[in-house]
Amino acid sequence: RHSFSACGAMAAGMIRRCTASPPRAAAWPPRRAIAKGPVQLTKSHAARARTSSQPRSWSLACRAAAGLLAAGASRRRPLALGRSRRGCRTGLACSADSKAASLGSAEEPAEERGLLVLLVAAAYVIWTMDKVNMSVAVLPMATEFDWDQSQVGIVQAAIFWGYATTQVPGGFLATRYGGKRVLLGAVLLWSGMTALGPIAAMMSTQVFLLSRVLVGIGEGLAPAAGIRVVATWVPEEERSRAVATLGGGKYLGTIVGLLVAPFVINAWGWPAMFYSFGGLGFAWGAVWAVYGKDREVPSVRTGDEREEEDETPIPWMKILSSRAVWGIVVAHFCHDWGTYSLLTWTPSYLNKALGYDLTGSSEITVVPSIMAIGTAALAGTAADSLRTSGMKLTDVRKVMQGIGFGVPAFSLGVLGVMGSTWEGESSLAPIALLIIGIAGGSFSLAGLYSSHADVSVKYCGLVNGISTTFGAVAGICSNSYAGSTLASTGSWAQAIFFPSVCFYFIGFSVYSWLYDASPIDWDAPDEVDTLPSNVD
Q1: What is the DSSP letter of 41?
Q2: Angle at 103 between CA 101 and CA 105, to 5 degrees
Q3: How many helices, marked H, and strands, marked E, lie in the chain?
Q4: 206/407 Cα distance (integer angstroms)
Q5: How many CB atoms lie within 10 A of CB 207?
Q6: What is the mean pLDDT of residues 462-482?
């Protein structure tokens, strides 16, 4: 203690000498360098010191004072210079991400952030309801408007055209303006277009396709906004469960949509389904406008440095050249190829291949989603437990994603090989395989879907937007391919099951090879001197 006090006294004396010197254009050292935490001496700061009107001796004295105070503050680590070996581009970034991960329980009540997560999950419920409603409504609409299987595939894929175009803009908007406003605007847009769907369909098929594209544009803004809220409010040790809750909202939306849509269609006709589902989004918007909240990303920068950070342009080239980002992107594309194939074509498969009616096929389709909610909760809890027990975060994500790809690959593979023997009869075997496959895929919520916030809290919305763009492209391709293949061959295995299995294996291989959960500071200069990182 005495030695650290002596260091502090010497440093204070040096700083007094610095402050007694003539005024200068910029203060040295920067305030963050003498605060508790890692010391970072960038090239820009060194240049600022050399061009200052203050003599070089004073700059050296102040630098020494900063080092003494930093050493006294840390008390445990010797000063060392060099790049982080754990994936952080700066020690400052590691400190900021660690602070972002640790904040939450100490500064905000758990009930407050829990309410925000539940409200975002409710938005995901409505989001998925307005996506799966078409898989039910398309059956009576195809009869009324005389659509063949190829046209049905185009109608099913229309929403993904809009969904793909707004993923990156959604990430940019969420990064710049926060999740609350972006999510509110997204829900209001897609709900309004959903409510206008019947009017558009009565005008022409082309106008209806345009309305579905606009629904997709609104829905494309939602993922990045939701992830942004979770990343800025939920600490790392709870993040897998929070993301699993959002994923549970998507599965619950599938359940509610597939159960409610046939009831409403049978009672009041398919237009009533669009009106009622659209109105639900406006009700959610009223609640979110009151209780939704944004939160700034925690930072160790202060004063002028924080203003400079806020004005920093988005480092697109650094983000797009990251191995971890491309591991996420490829996994997202491969995951969504299988997911959207099953989401949009399962009711038709049960109706046309296995002989179930509209209500029966919808009721059966919700069973896998019910199971998926339970497995999503299990996956989130297991991932957080593994992390708490000391497993590296990268390994946790890869284990969860391995299950999320492996289980559905097995189930759909068996279904593709054996499925033709069950067509034309109400067999339970294909239903059991669908349940296992879809439920097992929910482990991806603790793997792939938790990865965006791992690599960067600040830019998680943008990374999510990039990867979800490719996921939406997979939705377009998978639905168009399935529709055309069914029209030409009539084979469900060639249209849905076998392509999904292939993409699952590709996705797991690339994700395992490229992904690393270490936080990255893309705002950092290319060359910095920093204390070594302690991020695991």
Answers
A1: E
A2: 115
A3: 23, 2
A4: 39
A5: 14
A6: 88
